[in-house]
Amino acid sequence: MTTRALSDRGAVVLALAAAAGALVHRPTSLPVAIGTVGLAFVVRRPALLCVGAALLASAMGARCWAGLQPPSPHRVQGIATLVSDPEHVLDALHLEVRLHGTRLDAWARGDAAAALEPRLAGERIEVEGRVKPVAPGQRDRLAVRHISGQLSIARVGAWSRGNVAETMANGVRRTLERGVASLPGQQRALFMGFVLGDSRGQSDATANDFRNAGLTHLLVVSGENVAFILALAGPLLRLLQLRTRFVAGLLLLLAFGVLVRWEPSVLRAEAMAALALFATTLGRPVSGLRLLALAVTGLVIVDPVLVRSVGFLLSVGACAGIALWATPLAARIPGPRIVGEPLAVTIAAQLGVAPVLIPVFGGLPVAAIPANLLAIPAAGPLTMWGMTAGAVAGLAGGAAAAALHAPTRVLITWIAAVAHACAHLPLGHVGLVPLAVGGLCAVAWRRGPRAVRPYLVPVGALGLLVIPLALASLTATNDVTAQPVTSAAHLWRRGSATVVVLDRPPSAGFPAALRRAHVTHVDVLALASADSRMGHALDDLIPAVNPGLIVSPPGFHRPHLAVATPGTEVAVGGLVVRADGESPVRFSVVSR
Length: 592
Known about the structure:
single chain, alpha+beta, CATH 2.40.50.140, 17% strand
């Protein structure tokens, strides 16, 4: 049986079956699962193949989750391989490492952090510290990265380079980073995000602008980046024979994956690109939807925890939306194609990610439509110029690098300005109700009577645009508003100022509850006590909440922390946070 035996719809069913098996992850006989898949190929039965894929993904998932049992607390010493690039989180350095065959969420401070800061993923370093299970509130989030334990690094020793591929990739990254030394700090950080998906160094304000404008996908590596790399290498690849071209293309994809760190969106994009190269080599090109379905099937069987990765689901959803709806939408959008086609792609991608964004983040920002239309035309040239001229700039340095990156500066300035402007547009978010109105109008357009079709466009526009705009206008106020986030936390707002008061350690769902309330940054996090339970919760909350200032009783030692004593007042925006009493502290929030 070949992929031609499966229709596009059948390939989607196959991917859904594999994803369902990975979600269930019940212990299943691996030989039985493999035998079912093999039998499906022999008898050429697509339905049996779907069953086999579900069994195989379930068996692999059960084995994967069984290997994520939390470790018992113990001292550890050995050679750790860095899995991620070190990143500063307030007063600590955060990274992921692989030590004695186990992937750990690692934190370092002081001299250990200073020794780790210059290192990059793939390099090896001698460490000593203490391992403990991850906090319950972080367990599910870290499990999708195959992490079950946390390492507190106390001492760092000698280091060594990784394998040849990792050493070359790190050399390229350092070269690109040297090339943008002449750019301002935030422009350097954005350049590394556009070209390599490296989010380190980006300020909270910049990250919030891109998130609220629906442009976060530009700061991670996706299929667009992979397409640019293949396009750049295209003239050289076309000089090779067909099979040699296929092998060279796979090696190029492998090198690019090592360079950009194999994030979930990279895995999806590279799997699709590899399948497209294979199909082209065989002379059997297939549709984008089938490529996506086959790529998802293979990935969730090999790595079943991907079905719980928000980044992977967003990448798959956006690609599926473009494959399903971009062409039909472009045909129905009036006006010139140069506007209609990008608009159709943007709307299709937003519809594709809606099933993930709405429940996880609370809604789709309407500002994403104008933001993407204005930013995407600059993002492509920026990525291609950054990978080519950026390498030359890194080798040349000095005035030559500054001159080569003059176009880079212009493009980044434009995209950042678009993100900032669109993030502050009062357009609101598309939730379930307006999305349902728009979806029903779309179905009625395809299936309904011709007489009512002219009225469906304004009704759909009302659902997708006008309702969120009206809700945003109604909720926008300069009055102080307070709302419970969880039983342990209250959220206070006035204008753009945000204060969260924690009466006791919050539950595991607290960060998700903030996202559903459309909170992307907490200006002040006020803690009513400084006991050990609140301290452990604070360590978990800081990466998720990114507070601008922490207010607490004496007992914690963190940067950006104000000690709350009776009468302490902290002003932020139009709010004043006042502390009364000892521990526990009673916080009141009023307008000023």
